[in-house]
Amino acid sequence: MTKDHLTDEDKAVLEQMMKRRAEEQARRAAGGPPPAVPAGGTLAEKWAEPFGGSDEEDGLFAALPRTTPVGIVAIDGPGGVTLYRDGRVRFSIAIPGKPRFVAAGGGLDAVAELTAAPIAVSLIMVPPQAGVPLAAQAAALAGDITQAEPRPLALGQPGVDAVSVATLNQGTDVRTAAVLAGGAAGKSAIVIVMIDHDRARVDAATAATVQAAVLGSAAFTPEPRRRIPAVLPDSPWLEPGLPLRLRAGRPALPATADRAALAEGLLAIAGDLPPDRALDDGARAATARVLGDAALAARVATAHDLRGLALDALRA
C-alpha cells in the first residue's frame, strides 16, 4: 500500500502510530502485563482501566464475544439500535440495524455486522501521537487506510475534536474510513470507524443513512451515556428502523424524467447530516429547488426525510 498522497510529516506520524499499535497488539497477543508505568496518552493505561459503570449497567445486554476486553459493553436499545461503549477510551457510538458483534481479528477492536442490512462497522482504537495535532493524525490515518484524499467532517458531538473521512472503492465494494480524534476526562484517543458495504447489495440511501447515523452518534464522554440515541427519527416517507422501507401512503414524488438525478440531488443535500438533524433554511431552499415543488419541500423536516425521498426516487 503506497502513501504517495501523504506529506512527509503525515507519513512519519502514521508510521509512529502504527508501530506503537503493533507493539501493543503483540503484547496483548502474548498475554503480557501492561507496562508498569504507562506512557501518557497511550492505550496501555486505558486497557487496564475497568469500565466506569454507573446506573447505565443495570439491565445491559452483553452482545460481545467472550474474548472482548474488560471495559467494553454493548447495550441493546429500542428500534434495533445498539450503543457500543469502550470505557478504556471513554468512547461510545450507536449502531442501528440490529448489529451482531463478531470476533474481531486483524488488529480490529470490534466488528459489528448489521442483521437488517449487509453492512459491517469495524472499530480500531489507536494511541494518539504526542505533540502532533489531532486533526493531522486523523487525516493521515484516513488517507492511508483508503488511499484517497481525506476530508474534514464537523460532527459537533461531545468530546470529538477532529474528524477526517475518506472512501475506498474497489469494484462494487465500498469502504468508508472515518477517523475521530478527541477525548474526555483529560485523556485523548483516536478511534477509526470503518463502514463496509457492497453497492450491488446496498442502495445509496441506505448506505448514507447508516454512515450518517453511526458517525453522528459518536462521542467521548467521562461517564457512560444514560440514554441510547434513537438516531432514526419518524418520517412520512419511511417505516421505522432498518432496512429502509417506504411507507404506504407517503407523499408522492413530483413527476420527473430523471429519477436518478433527483435521488442524487437529495442525497447531496443530506450530505453527512445525521438522520435526526433538522434542516436549516439553506437546506430547505435547496430541497425546494431540487424537487421543484414548494409544498412537498415544506414537509421535509430532517435529513432522514431527504434520504427517504431519495430512496423513493431510486426505487420508482
Decide which structural class fits the backbone: alpha+beta
Query: How many strands appear in the DSSP assignment?
Result: 11
Approximate shape:
globular
Mean pLDDT: 82
Largest sheet: 7 strands, antiparallel
Explain the overall architecture:
The structure is a single chain. With 316 residues, the chain is α+β, with helices and mostly antiparallel strands. The protein folds into 2 domains: 8-220, Mog1/PsbP, alpha/beta/alpha sandwich (Protein Transport Mog1p, Chain A); 232-316, no CATH class. Helix content is 29%, strand content 22%. The protein has 8 helices and 11 strands. The chain has helices spanning 8-29, 43-47, 134-146, 204-216, 259-270, 281-291, 294-297, 303-315; strands at residues 72-76, 82-86, 91-95, 99-102, 110-114, 119-126, 151-152, 160-170, 173-184, 187-198, 219-220. A 7-stranded antiparallel β-sheet has the order 4-5-6-10-9-8-7, sandwiched between helices. It has a 4-stranded antiparallel β-sheet with strand order 1-2-3-11. A hairpin with a 5-residue loop joins strand 1 (72-76) and strand 2. Helix 5 runs antiparallel to helix 8 (303-315). It is globular and about 60 Å long. The model is unreliable at 34-68 (pLDDT under 50).
